[in-house]
Amino acid sequence: MFQFNSVILKEKAKQISPVTLAFLGDAVYSLFIREKLVLTADYKASDLQKLSSKSVSAHGQSELLEKIIPLFTEEELDIFKRGRNAKKNAKSKNASVSEYNRSTGFEAVLGYLYLTGNYQRINELLGVQDEN
User: Fold this and answer.
1) What is the value of pTM for the model shown?
2) Which of 53, 70, 85, 87 lies at a C-alpha separation of 20 to 30 Å from 38?
3) Is 74 exposed, middle or buried (0-12, 13-18, 19+ CB in 10 A)?
4) For residue range 17-34, what is the model confidence (pLDDT) as tens digits?
5) Angle at 40 between CA 39 and CA 44, to 5 degrees
6) Any catalytic annotation for residue 42?
């Protein structure tokens, strides 16, 4: 039986396609940004959507990556590279190929961390965007 917010073993998560991990990681990052916006500011829904889209875009993720790649563990870097280098059936409409590939790697890491229950690590990595 499926249970929301299930945690799986790292070995099982590593067997999942990096593009599939990125599919989940995209939702994880979107939820993180939306929750952060809702809890830290008082904006209208239309403004929340605009602010969210800016962060969640491939370009926005690529910028954040500049700050967090040096923080990746060896395991996270491996997942990132697998996602970045994976064959994708889709193309980004609003990002360069490089940004799109990097964002897929970033999302794969988030999907992996989410599935393995490492929510604290997600907070550590994504909290970097609030520094400086």
Assistant:
1) 0.91
2) 70
3) exposed
4) 999 999 999 999 999 999
5) 80
6) no
